[in-house]
Amino acid sequence: MATNRAPPSEQEMKTRIITHMNTQHSRELSHYLRHYAGLSARAATASPAIQDMNLAGMTIKTRNGSTYNVPFSPPLSSWAEARPRVIAMDVTAREALGISDIYLTEWARPRGFDWIPLGGVVFYYICYAGLPWVAPGSAVWETLRVVFPGGPEWFLWIVRSIFWLVFGIHTVEVYLLDKWKLQKHGVPRFSWVWWKWAGNIFVEGVTTWKRLDSIIAAKRAQKEEKKH
């Protein structure tokens, strides 16, 4: 004979919400800390977890032991309101922080045409690093005299003259990729994924942007399909 189960108690509902948020939504907790508590991105992503929760708000703890109060405004009238409220709070936080709902969690290696600019920049850096070996009388010097227009003197002038231009352009591209793309799509600064994309654009340039944009577009298309 079937028996009716008692509805979950207030404490059980609270525990379920806290467990779910801590195990499935640490990213959202970091958004709360950044927007509602004013933490930096680095501090907010230091293993945030809800320490306690009531109808008035959440107490979120980070790895270093610091705790921050994030209020519900207005307070919840019951635990049934918790799910839509925390979702709405995340939307508000992301919009204020300029963070997309499409998260980039992977890196993609160069493909096809991407290898051409990457190879060109790598070759240039090799040339610059090899300048000490371009000396009169060396095998490299004599080879450049034969194969390089203008000879070794012109080679030396070109490689030296454009170094800071090349270095500066690619450094700025790292900065802009981080600011406009990686931070917007939830890539923690200086994480392994961040370093891969930053390293790519430093030696590859504009094709990195195109490859990253194609990944984001594919993720957005997948998300839209799930809605229908």
From TrEMBL:
Top-level taxonomic group: Eukaryota
Domain named DUF2470: residues: 14-89
Key words of the record: Membrane, Transmembrane, Transmembrane helix
Pfam annotation, one family: DUF2470
Presence of keyword Transmembrane helix: yes
rRNA-binding among keywords: no
InterPro entries to which the protein is assigned, alphabetical: DUF2470, Haem_oxidase_HugZ-like_sf
Transmembrane residue ranges: 115-134, 154-177
UniProt xrefs under PANTHER family: MEMBRANE PROTEIN, PUTATIVE (AFU_ORTHOLOGUE AFUA_1G04315)-RELATED
UniProt-recorded name of the protein: DUF2470 domain-containing protein
Organism: Trichoderma harzianum CBS 226.95
Organism phylogeny: Eukaryota, Fungi, Dikarya, Ascomycota, Pezizomycotina
